[in-house]
Amino acid sequence: MSETAGPELTVDIGQHRDRYDIASQWQLTWWAFKKHHLAMIGLWVIGLMYLISLVCEFTAPEDPFIQHRRAVFHPPQMIHFIDVREDGWSFHPYVEKMTRKRDPKTLAITYTPSGENIYLKFFGKGTPYKFWGLWEADVHLFATENPRDKFFLFGADRLGRDMFSRVMYGTRISMSIGLVGVVISLILGISLGGVSGYYGGRIDALIQRLIEFVLSLPTIPIWLALAAALPASWPIYQQYFVITLIVSLVGWTELGRVVRGRFLAMKNEDFVVAARLDGASEARIIGRHMLPSLTSHIIASLTLAIPLMILAETGLSFLGLGLQPPAISWGVLLKEAQNIRSISQAPWLFIPGGFVVIAVLAFNFLGDGMRDAADPYGN
Fold first, then answer.
1. I want to staple 178 with a disulfide (CB 3.0 to 4.6 A). Which of 170, 295, 306, 365 is the partner?
2. Model confidence over 166-178: pLDDT tens digits?
3. HEC profile for the chain?
């Protein structure tokens, strides 16, 4: 039996080696990345969050600005999928209806189960919305069978607004502000770092002094000062754009130094010298010969930079110096949980903070996996 197994094993090993010998750099990187299980989990989580940010109008049960005066600080309601009755059971999602009562002595509002159910349906019609501000629709991921019924998966805030809908809308700004900020950092880091490393001399000295000056600035006070200078009368899109610029001010420096160091090491390599002797322009040498060798490292660095920008926006908005209502971000939502009353009566107002933690962990796992996979030959 061993005589027959030996040749088959030799063939399998040979095919396995041939597969790696003919694989491209991207294939090797992907195979190495798939071995990092936490990175794959982070990739799925981040993909789900960006999907939510793209279709938040659809995933949110109702308009995040609608106020329900009879549902102030309404507690979260859990979805039950199996409806058990006397005649049997069926798959019918529902939440337990809550009754609002006020204590005659303390005047405190309490919610108790009423014994009735609010039945839900997937892809049902609910509050009308304008998808991405382009076309009107009224179909939601899940809605109540009776339009008059209301439910609160993540509870309600002090104005009776649905927290689940607000978290869904907040995902769009909080996740995109990190992405847009990283794009700005990418442009600045590659441009200034590449010019500094490729040309050297006075240009290199000038750009390095600029990087050192930016790194010497106290980050948080500078952010606070710049954010406080924003006029409160500015519309949401202007606030969003300026806050994105603020959180990108120091994000490019580390990438700029990495690109400069790699360019200094590569500009005298044989393939760069050969391209220069062949008459290739400097733009072609940089764009077609030098930058592609840095792609995997740049992607890994940017993946680790996104959570820092998300945390920066969340911190500024939480302190009241970032985005302001009616803008909705995770930081703006966490601002509702600043007082003792919110902590004692409505701890579910901290749910946006949980989304921040999940997003940051997912990006860190993804960044670690991409950093390890950036050198597939070393794995």
1. 306
2. 999 999 999 998 8
3. CHHHHHHHHHHHHHHHHHHHHCCCHHHHHHHHHHCCHHHHHHHHHHHHHHHHHHCHHHHCCCCCCCCCHHHCCCCCCCCEEEEEECCEEEEEEEEEEEEEEECCCCCCEEEEEEEEEEEEEEEEEEEEEEECCCEEEEEEEEEECCCCCCCCCCCECCCCCEHHHHHHHHHHHHHHHHHHHHHHHHHHHHHHHHHHHHHCHHHHHHHHHHHHHHHHCCHHHHHHHHHHCCCCCCCHHHHHHHHHHHHCCCCHHHHHHHHHHHHHHHCCCHHHHHHHHCCCCHHHHHHHHHHHHHHHHHHHHHHHHHHHHHHHHHHHHHCCCCCCCCCCCHHHHHHHHCCHHHHHHCHHHHHHHHHHHHHHHHHHHHHHHHHHHCCHHHC
